[in-house]
Design a protein that fits this description.
Structural class: alpha/beta
Number of helices: 13
CATH topology: Alkaline Phosphatase, subunit A
Radius of gyration: 18 Å
Strand content: 5-15%
Strand order of the largest sheet: 2-3-7-6-1-5-4
Distance between the termini: 22 Å
Number of domains: 1
Shape: globular
Helix content: 25-40%
Largest sheet: 7 strands, mixed
CATH class: Alpha Beta
Bound molecules: zinc ion
């Protein structure tokens, strides 16, 4: 059976020390512990038949603290974006990074290889009515580069998409909102169900980066408990050919002693029978190639 992948990008999650200011050292995540058996902290390493967990480098030899635009371009194009620019770029991709994304975004490349793919995140009605392209994220640019369609609020209501906050909580603040909240468990099931129709499903959540910048331990604990439930939904009745890969663009939330990004390694967690194929990945720009060469057996 064809391998399938659910690629979850969590913004701002690194592997930090086992200290009181690291929510990952404090919080209980029963689903994750059952699979991994260890906490997501510095120097963690798990290699079993179906699970790979290790720390990987997000700095990529470029001076300074890693940032979102360059880190995410690495994750979703496989290029060393920070080396290309010569620095780490915050937030949204600039013209130079957009060029890289247009050359080889994960969705565009998947299309070229005949792999069905979807960016699972849903977009609000406001996105389709705005022309503010300067605030397009790497993932939005990646969808555009592939000429793929964006998921709408209608897709979300049909359970065919997942909102960036997982439970639709931020949508409840919108006037005349028509989207009800969902449990993280149900959102996980919805995400997993997309593999019925697609080989590659990508989802991004930037809650941990927001919480990290606010240095909010209570919210951080809340997030990881919620994420654990989300993971429980994803794993429910998961078929053997479906793989889950979780990684990040830079550290942040694992050290709430300050409200900025860290230079810590970020986790690479792969769940599924081909997990050990990712053993040689040691940097965030190496994930892309491993996905296509090791999991989807694309030959260059
Ligand atoms: Zn980021």
């Amino acid at each position: 059976m064809q391998n399938k992948l659910i690629y979850i990008f969590l913004d701002g999650v690194g592997l930090g020390d086992e200290v009181a200011t690291n929510p990952l050292a404090q919080v209980s995540m029963p689903t994750l512990s059952q699979i991994v058996g260890k906490k997501l902290i510095r120097d963690v390493e798990v290699l079993t038949e179906n699970v790979l967990l290790k720390g990987i480098d997000a700095c990529l030899g470029v001076k300074g603290v890693p940032q979102s635009a360059t880190g995410q371009t690495c994750l979703f194009t496989g290029y060393n974006a920070q080396a290309f620019l010569g620095y780490h770029l915050m937030a949204y991709p600039n013209d130079e990074l957009v060029q890289i994304i247009e050359q080889r975004s994960i969705f565009k490349y998947a299309n070229e290889q005949g792999l069905t793919n979807i960016f699972a995140n849903s977009y609000t009605d406001g996105f389709f009515h705005s022309n503010n392209t300067s605030r397009y994220s790497v993932t939005t640019r990646s969808v555009l580069a592939a000429n793929n369609r964006f998921n709408t609020m209608d897709d979300l209501m049909k359970g065919k998409a997942v909102h960036w906050d997982i439970t639709n909580s931020t949508l409840q603040e919108l006037p005349n909102n028509r989207v009800p909240e969902v449990s993280p468990y149900q959102a996980g099931i919805n995400l997993k169900n997309l593999t019925d129709d697609y080989d590659l499903v990508v989802f991004e959540c930037f809650l941990p980066d927001l919480i990290g910048h606010r240095k909010d331990m209570e919210k951080a604990r809340w997030f990881f408990e919620l994420f654990d439930e989300f993971l429980r939904g994803i794993l429910y009745n998961k078929q053997d050919n479906i793989h889950i890969l979780i990684s990040s663009d830079h550290g942040n939330i694992e050290d709430l002693s300050f409200g900025g990004h860290s230079m810590n390694e970020v986790p690479l967690l792969v769940i599924g029978k081909q997990a050990l194929q990712f053993q040689n990945v040691s940097r965030i720009d190496e994930i892309f190639d491993a996905i296509f060469s090791k999991l989807f057996h694309v030959k260059n």
